[in-house]
Amino acid sequence: MVERALSFGSVAEAYERFRPGYPVELLELVTAYAGGPIRTALEIGAGTGKATRLFAQGGIAVTATEPDAAMLAELRKHLPANVTTVQAAFEDLPLDSSYDLVYSAAALHWTNPEGRWARMAALVRPGGVFTSFGVPIQLSDPALKEAVRAARAPYLGYDGVPSPDGTPEDRPMQWPGTELEQSEWFTDVRQAVIERRLTMSADDYIGQLSTVSAYVMLPPADRDEVFRRTLEVLPETVEIDAQITAHLARRH
Known about the structure:
alpha/beta; Rossmann fold; 7-stranded mixed sheet; 3-stranded antiparallel sheet; 11 helices; 10 strands; 35% helix; disordered N terminus
């Protein structure tokens, strides 16, 4: 899992180019949940800064942490003035500061589950907010989705990240909400969905896949073949279901 977590640096520029950013509706969701001013925020696994820029635009002083040097270098190319960067994994962060908001964008599943919530609670001030969100990008057309799955099947069966605690996909509350509900440090756990559809070229869709860890970890020849086969079954443009699922919780 650590190897996969640190696999993104090799594709940092592609990650910045092809991964979609986050809409202002997400900032509004978190701000409304907080119910008061958010002055300081800590970001876990900032990547190239897709979410960093959203929260910085809200006037929040963001400390963006990221273990991968190449990803951090890409983030620093697009840095707003109110962002501080730190190269560190979540597990190595000092616990001598706490923040109004601690958040993670499509990165929480890479953190070590052992002691995760005790460490998180130390970083969120009492009454402060924790949120985790991500965009599991999927083709909107079920038939196209199946064609792409069949095209990659000889080389890659499943290209997602399994639920870290094994919660089935049909359960109303998904991870990490499931763990937050059991945590002694957090309360008022909510799950929210921001619906979003995007249209992109087939080439850009492949570009996006090239930043997904399951593909990054393939041998280069296999990866090239998967992308060639996938392109063969795609039309020139594709519609993407890019809904954002967010989990929010308040520190006791």
